[in-house]
Amino acid sequence: MTEAQPPRTTGRRGRLLTLTALAAAVGAAAWALRDLPAAFGGRPDGAREERIGRSPQYRDGVFHNAPSEVAGAAAPGTPSSETVRRMLFDREGRVPALPVPTVRPQHGAAAAEGVEIVWYGHASVLVEIQGSRVLLDPIWSDRCSPSAHVGPKRLHPVPSDLAEVPPVDAVLISHDHYDHLDMATVKRLVTLQSAPFLVPLGIGSHLRRWGVPEHRIIELDWDETCTLGDLTLTLTSAHHFSGRGTTRNTTLWGSWVIAGPSRKVYYTGDSGYFEGYAAIGEQHGPFDAALVQIGAYDEAWADIHMTPEDAVRAHRELRAGLLVPVHWCTFNLGLHPWSEPVERLLVEAKAQAVPLVVPRPGERVDVDQPQELDGWWETIA
């Protein structure tokens, strides 16, 4: 006597089950990716496109880096298969072993009269300078991705809700990559804040698609300046690239000089090391502090992201005082161990006698009286 065999799912019933599973998978993928077209942003047209065409940085339909003997002017190409393999499979040590400590920021009724900085994680920073406030590259989403469901996820929560950020005088964007320009955050800022968005050329088209009113969009080319009350804000050069969706280098990237009546802060944005830092330091420095990118570096993309040693060199050439590292800790975007950027930075800063502070996400830094280094990252790496 033979055992009873389970019913087979071949034939019409099997095909129906397969089609049902496939439809469910396609539906789930479509739901997860439903926001992609809007997150990709918009494209300039008309007078805005004509203005882009007049930029010295724009030719052959795209923006270009300035010529550099150190970093080369070409934009980065497609990552090699080896780089992609390392990104996907060499993951040991790239996230902290324990939760990242955060501090709930405390804000006064008015902005600091000196220079104070709150780092929210990654490159999102609130700068208070002589009574004014500026918000840099805000991203409050759980992922730095065009989708809320896939892509690099936060390694720590944002220290406070976006609604708790005090009124700011300007929102500055360095470039349009997803870890610096976040659609969901921009949409919330439209209602939570009344400040203008200052962006490199072309990025205004993204903001318009996301509902930012025209009167709150100010687009600048390199070395162009906008004055808002006591603030003087200048877009300066960087050595990087841009792109959302299928486009690349159709919007400009840059760094920012934030100047009050007598004090200044510099923000590198994302950049490889290049000779431009010495020129920026000569033209706009000295700076009370510099917010310098230190993470997501690798030999494969040396042209677009600085190593910690590059960061110290750039900081010195900028003629800056206190170094505040950014672009690390929050998202796993590089191939190096999670804490390596700050560890290498400490060694080089000490060797070069560069004053340094490493705040926890949300921790306020008074540039005139910075807290001592306490190695908080060492216990969780």
What this model shows, in words?
By secondary structure, this protein is α/β, with parallel strands linked by helices. It has a domain at 115-379: Ribonuclease Z/Hydroxyacylglutathione hydrolase-like (Metallo-beta-lactamase, Chain A). It is built from nine helices and 15 strands. It has helices at residues 11-32, 36-39, 46-53, 81-89, 183-192, 204-209, 276-284, 308-317, 340-351; strands spanning 58-59, 62-63, 115-121, 124-129, 132-136, 170-172, 197-200, 217-220, 224-228, 231-236, 255-259, 264-267, 287-293, 320-326, 364-366. The strands form three sheets. The chain has a seven-stranded mixed sheet. It has a six-stranded mixed sheet with strand order 9-10-11-12-13-14, with helices on one face. Strands 1-2 form a two-stranded antiparallel sheet. Helix 7 (276-284) links the parallel strand 12 (264-267) and strand 13 (287-293). The longest helix has 22 residues, at 11-32.
List keywords for this structure.
381 residues, alpha/beta, 9 helices, 15 strands, 18% strand, disordered N terminus
What is shown here, in short?
The chain is α/β, with parallel strands linked by helices and 381 residues long. It is built from 9 helices and 15 strands.
Helix and strand layout, with pairings?
Elements: H1 11-32, H2 36-39, H3 46-53, E1 58-59, E2 62-63, H4 81-89, E3 115-121, E4 124-129, E5 132-136, E6 170-172, H5 183-192, E7 197-200, H6 204-209, E8 217-220, E9 224-228, E10 231-236, E11 255-259, E12 264-267, H7 276-284, E13 287-293, H8 308-317, E14 320-326, H9 340-351, E15 364-366
Parallel strand pairs: 5-6, 6-7, 7-8, 12-13, 13-14
Antiparallel strand pairs: 1-2, 3-4, 3-15, 4-5, 9-10, 10-11, 11-12
Helix pairs in contact: 7-8, 8-9
